[in-house]
Amino acid sequence: MLKSIFLFFFTSVILFALLACEDTKKTSSLACIDPVPDYRSKAWYLEDGTNSVDASVLLSKANGTNVNIALVTDGMDARHCALKDQYDKVNSYNFYTKMANPQLADEYIVRGTAMAGLLVSGFTNKGIQALAPKAKLWVMALKQNITAENIAQAAYPSGLSNATGDAQFNISINSWYDSPKDKSFIIPASSTTANEEAKDWAKNVDRGIGLQNSGKVPKGISYLWFAGDGGDSPQFRDSNLNGYANFYGVMAICAMGGDVKANFSETGSNLFLCAPSFDKAIYTTDVLGSEGLNGDYTNNDFTDRFGDKKYRGDIPTAIAGGVLGLLQSYAKAKASSSTTGWEVPNWWKWRIILAESAKKVDASDSSWVLTRPTYSDPNVKFHHSEKYGFGLISAAKAMQVVDSNAWDANGPTGTATYKIGPAASNLMRDSTGAYSEIQFSSGLSFLLFTEVFVSANMSNVSLTLVSPAGIESHLIPQDSANGVQFVSNTKIRLGSVRDFGSTTGGNYETGKWRLYLKPTNPSDATPDFKEWSLRLVGY
User: Fold this and answer.
1) Can you name the CATH fold of 417-538?
2) Global pTM?
3) N or C: less crowded end of the chain, CB within 10 Å?
């Protein structure tokens, strides 16, 4: 009997030791290969061209110094030689382990490691040519422990045990939520209904932007979110059906596939900018060891395989965030050497800069429309597409706008705010179909975002907003409406940047806003519509 007990105990100890060794092998201090290869010439997306971000000149003038970028994803390989010195070891946070170290088992950190390599690098003459190489990453390892509290803390980490105070990062790149294919995740505006996880997240984005934080983040945080990868699905192809991507506090990023929209990238009136995707190989950092994208290949520290369907939305989001980080670094250096009081743009000025400087791609596509006047020239209007947003992000053109006098101390000084319009429940008809109308003048001189709140008990109905300027926002287009269910007594939030721009110089502000409702089946009865309202964000 004693012999049996001993054998059982001895076998258990050996088995435990083997398992511990296996776990240690996955997270041990592996070293990069030596010498480190040079893949900088492979960064085609940084060069000047029709489908790249024109960053070569700006990279000669700035390198990401003094910019903090929150990377909210699955973690990062903190052992990697190109990354280990480029993340903030105090303010990074692992929501799974409750520690500052973003390291998890190797198979769980592929996404974040690859995105980090596009953003930062500890090398100057080898490895990957990152977009903002000397920026500091606040790595928020969220994906393995997604809760309402953690989502909110990742957006604005003011209460984490390791935090040094209120959030002081400048940019937040988010890649932790896989959009459900049934698109049931339209976030209700009411905090008493489903999808409670988004309520505190939205409040913390408000705080991070600066609308509700009493100036604790004076310039505000720029939040980036991928528009969605359901563009190649048979239905639900619209980014506006994702309640994170359609929030006013977020810039929704679409993906290019060569000179045109990537087929997987979702459309929407909420789209802000596009960035390159993986139509050509993109080199970046890989998890050390055999659990990364390269598997058991000899050169397993860097990879050109970050284009798998599972990660296809991460590339444009990281590239857009990296360009913005490089621009912010350039602006901070410019401000520090200024003798005239030139100031770094705040979050909404960055949006204007990026929108004015974006490259109009696929110019003959019928989705492009002229919208409202730009800030810098009231005689020029923004161009916007529900496939491409304001266009492809351009570091060179944005740098030119930053250098212009419009962004010095004499530039726009208003405080961003929002105005809530009256609710309307009237339902009328014209030759186009059923619509409801609101007369609303906000008093804002520049619109940044339009939020639409709809209360109804209906399904399979497309929604189109028409502003006083005659600009159409296809909030739920016909090809995405089938299967979209509005639950009774629930108020749904949708968003649009189509009316982004100046409200002066024409019938751009005063007048009537119309919401058109059209069943996907023409024989269906008039939708069971309750009411709707507007919230205009601007200054």
Assistant:
1) Jelly Rolls (2.60.120)
2) 0.90
3) N
